[in-house]
Amino acid sequence: MTSSETVYLDVVTPIAFDNQYYINLRKNMGVLTTDSELVKDPRTAPLVAAFAEGPPQIFRQQFAVSMAKLVNVGVLTGEDRVGEIRKVCSKSNSRAY
Predict the structure, then answer these.
(1) Domain ranges of the chain
(2) Among positive and negative, which fits the CA dihedral 69, 71, 76, 80?
(3) GO: which molecular function terms (predicted)?
């Protein structure tokens, strides 16, 4: 097996912004272990079903709502707040390794 820089989470329409990912999940075509958990978990299974069965516009609309909410989360940075923007995601900037 060779490594690749890219792994598509949606192998059917990998470059389209649509709801095919959710359709794939219901067909057990998830790439990651966490993908299959979305279908099994009673908290997320109804969302997977709604996005899979509904028109792609429903997914795109909800994605836009989610992105708007993320804008308001705020990043913890600066000396008076606890947090940092990591240079390497898997390592803290402030700890020596």
Answers:
(1) 1-97
(2) negative
(3) heme binding; lactoperoxidase activity; metal ion binding
* Cα–Cα distance measured from residue 94 to residue 88, given in angstroms and rounded to the nearest whole number: 11
CATH code for the part of the protein at 1-97 = 1.10.420.10
44 belongs to an annotated ligand binding site: no
- Digit-coded pLDDT (tens) for 31-74: 999 998 999 999 999 999 999 999 999 999 999 999 998 888 77
Asked if residues 44 and 38 have their Cβ atoms less than 8 Å apart, the reply is yes
Radius of gyration of the chain (CA): 18
Q: Answer yes or no: is 41 a known binding residue.
A: no
pTM of the model: 0.69
